[in-house]
Amino acid sequence: MKRLLTLALMLTPLLAFSQAKWNSKFEQMDNMLPTPNSYRTGSGEAGPDYWQQKADYKIKVELDDENQKITGSETITYYNNSPTTLRYLWIQLDQNVRQPENLGTKVNGARLPSTITQLGTRQAQGALGDTGFDGGFKLMSVKDTQGKDLRYLVNNTMMKITLPTPLKSGESYSFNIDWWYNINDRAQLGGRSGYEYFKEDGNYLYTIAQFYPRMAVYDDFNGWQNKQFIGSGEFALTFGDFEVEITAPSDHIVASTGELQNPKDVLTKQEQNRFKRAKKSFDKPVIIVSQAEAEAKEKTKANGKSTWVYHAKNVRDFAFASSRKFIWDAQAVKIGDNTPLAMSYYPKEGNPLWERESTKAVVNTLINFSEMTIDYPYPVAISVHAASIGMEYPMICFNFGRPRPDGTYDDFIKTRMVYVIVHEVGHNYFPMIINSDERQWAWMDEGLDSFLEYLTMKKYYPELPYSSNSPASIVPYMKGSKDFMRPIMTSPEQSLQLGYEAYNKPAAALVVLREQVMGPELFDEAFREYAKRWAFKHPKPADFFRTMEDASAVDLDWFWKGWFYSTDNVDVEVADVQWFKVAGESQGLETQVQAESGNLGENSGSDSNPFFGKPQEFKLTDSRVGSEYRSEVDNEAIRERFAGKNVYQITFKNKGGLITPLVLEWTFKDGSKEIERIPAEIWRRNENQVTKLFVKEKEVEKVLFDPFQELSDVDIENNTFPNKTASKFDNFKKGND
């Protein structure tokens, strides 16, 4: 229709109208996300009618150190803040995952090699489905507060209590449960909690969690979240206040969620004084129980008992650890207007590494995670040392990282110990405060936490050999078979490689999003907004996706669709480079030959390598403004601006399918280099192949895609031009030297 086209418009058809398969990777996600409503808005924040339930607990438990058993009783007060009337309640019985006939054992597949001649005893227990352990809750009574039996039904790891009268909106209901269970030996049976036995001194170290029947979540999104606990999917829990009494041998030190209410009853005078001093020590930890004191207790077991009283407000769960082996240190941290205590509990087997590094790692985590989210709101943050475990609960976590038996360690041991502490303490934010549904969406806590773990390690421990959660670290997974891969947006029970799909890939994706797509400043602002909006609430994936866009003005639907909903990978081929040079003379009005041929040079299809040969020169002809315009083009100024410039036409092929920004490193013939970053929207009209012009002052010797391995590209062999095939041009190059 138009007779005269600008150079830019002439080149547009090269990108826009090539016939290639279109997968709508840049289309909006509206049809994939739940419809916004008055509970959860389209901006990603809680709406005016948002509500959530509350459950308060009063618990008394006793730890039997002789028989490795927990006995407990609790009163639960459940508050119905929903707009609906409830006729029954669902309670989680997570210890039932260890019952002899549990669902997980029944559905877990296993096979033996056809040539098997032997099998380890521990492996046999799992593969053959018989641990020989009498696990699971033993319910003694379920009653109302007047002592009347309540009707209940146990379905594997869930218990349904039928209410005597319906619980209306705005009402609360209290009831009592008594129970006991055998504690599992983690060395023999594994598990997120349990005990470790030290045969050298005959003592136990207990890390106790999922130890009480606890309320399932009822919310606006799912109704009751009563999915069974099979093993991989963790927990969906309701906020509430806890008053917990823990009875243990009198020589045990008990670390716990919450604040200790009765230090005078359970600590010696000296320990009390040290504890007070720790609350004012901001530069280094104060030793409250020394190694020498702990070793003395290991040798003589006390006969009496002590009851430790802990209170915790507005938490979603509760856990504790207990042992006479514990060394204990603590240090105060200034976080905004709060002064939490960073504390560590560890047996002598953790020293000297734990005394040197654990509480320091807790402090670093609280500071960095608070900067990225919200100020840490709780009074304590605790790291407990236990073998071969990393597990999190409000204010307390259980962490591996043990020196060799002679007390020596190297950077590898130290790195593993530090990063697991950072990770598990970081879980205080995700999901303990920003309270996502772990059972359904593991990435919402593990992935976000692993991402912040990565930033914390890079900031505070750059000297350590830490490489997890970076874009480069997931390349072996991303280039693997799609048959053994699931998208991030998959339930952990259906995940095939949970470590990658819930932890490493979402973390690496967020690193790419922060560093390559949004930029740190914009990303951090949006990420903090998400944390502020959903602190002490129950966010869903759409709330995160929508908030990140709402708070940044960056359209990220293509990013979520590619990284979170697909198994595509990044594999960009620098497929072709053509070299042109702009001459300065005029040659009359422009013609349309260039537009129709799609070519700027007569010999652009030449077999010669443009970096080794000579450029195809083209002239800038005079243009004029057509149609109804009354202005004129300053042809000479434009020619002067581009005269002598090198123009490189590069074709990029998206062989992996995952939309990605382009990060290019230009190496010039004088040895200098330049980094250029192209937004991912370059693929918006053709998801498979794009061609772009680059204008450079200097002559180029090499162009490299993803030079710093920041994008998880799975095939670096096709990232460079000239690539290995350029060897056939060597003689040509020599002839032109």
TrEMBL record:
<keyword id="KW-0732">Signal</keyword>
<dbReference type="GO" id="GO:0016020">
    <property type="term" value="C:membrane"/>
</dbReference>
<dbReference type="GO" id="GO:0070006">
    <property type="term" value="F:metalloaminopeptidase activity"/>
</dbReference>
<dbReference type="InterPro" id="IPR050344">
    <property type="entry name" value="Peptidase_M1_aminopeptidases"/>
</dbReference>
<keyword id="KW-0031">Aminopeptidase</keyword>
<keyword id="KW-0645">Protease</keyword>
<dbReference type="GO" id="GO:0043171">
    <property type="term" value="P:peptide catabolic process"/>
</dbReference>
<feature type="domain" description="Peptidase M1 membrane alanine aminopeptidase">
    <location>
        <begin position="414"/>
        <end position="563"/>
    </location>
</feature>
<dbReference type="InterPro" id="IPR027268">
    <property type="entry name" value="Peptidase_M4/M1_CTD_sf"/>
</dbReference>
<protein>
    <submittedName>
        <fullName>Aminopeptidase</fullName>
    </submittedName>
</protein>
<feature type="compositionally biased region" description="Polar residues">
    <location>
        <begin position="718"/>
        <end position="728"/>
    </location>
</feature>
<keyword id="KW-0378">Hydrolase</keyword>
<dbReference type="Pfam" id="PF01433">
    <property type="entry name" value="Peptidase_M1"/>
</dbReference>
<feature type="region of interest" description="Disordered">
    <location>
        <begin position="718"/>
        <end position="737"/>
    </location>
</feature>
<feature type="signal peptide">
    <location>
        <begin position="1"/>
        <end position="18"/>
    </location>
</feature>
<dbReference type="InterPro" id="IPR014782">
    <property type="entry name" value="Peptidase_M1_dom"/>
</dbReference>
<dbReference type="GO" id="GO:0005615">
    <property type="term" value="C:extracellular space"/>
</dbReference>
<dbReference type="GO" id="GO:0042277">
    <property type="term" value="F:peptide binding"/>
</dbReference>
<dbReference type="GO" id="GO:0005737">
    <property type="term" value="C:cytoplasm"/>
</dbReference>
<dbReference type="GO" id="GO:0008270">
    <property type="term" value="F:zinc ion binding"/>
</dbReference>
